[in-house]
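tool_call: predict_structure(chain=1)
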Amino acid sequence: MMRKHLDFDCAGHRLAATLDEAPGKTGLLMVSGGNETRAGAFSGMAALAARIADHGYPVFRFDRRGVGDSEGRNRGFRDAAADIAAAIAAFRAEAPQLQRIYGFGNCDGASALMLANGRRLDGLLLANPWTIENDAGALPPAAIRSRYMGKLRDPAELLRLLKGQVSIAKLARGLRQAIRPPAPPSSLAMEMRHGLSRFTGPVMILLAERDRTAQAFIASWDKSDPRIARCPDATHAFAEPHAGDWIFNQIIKALSDK
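tool_result:
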């Protein structure tokens, strides 16, 4: 596997990119979440890209405009469609053997792919899509209920409650939040749903069960959607060893489907 650093044009700006080369005819385009660079949190995306390329699939990562080593103004994930389209064109130019390209994004990288309708891509792998319109730090009621159920199953937590080591006022506030009816889907979630409905290729929605972003997503989505797969005891970046193996295996499974 060879790692190549390059740049490409997007609306007159030079965007930085990295290609993990491999001979496969199916490739993976990675779209970073938040304002992370193409390396990902703790270089997690770079490590994942190398692992996928070692299995024969080329992987293209890039910094969108105004992020990391790329020029231009940071327009945010809602306005990343042009960046994604330019990255796909650059990927095809650098790896002319490609017949299919799948898009993979975590957090608002997944949201950006959905808002762009998956255009010019052959499949989508959407991890923990970001649906929170105004992030005030509050968990959705379903996530609060899940957290309290976990505490009730923990003997140590029950012992703390019996010993009076738990704030009754805080517990009461949490229980009130837990029984609130779910909020209606945000306008962002509705836009993402509409964008995804216009995509005709295969889709996998990959959720880390301990992740607040994933919990907020599932609260505003159809829980019976057969495209959803969940990784138990995983956090947002799939940093746990078992979670890293899980996300890798899900991606390889998708890329190897004919």
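agent: Residues 141-178 form one domain. Proceeding to next step.
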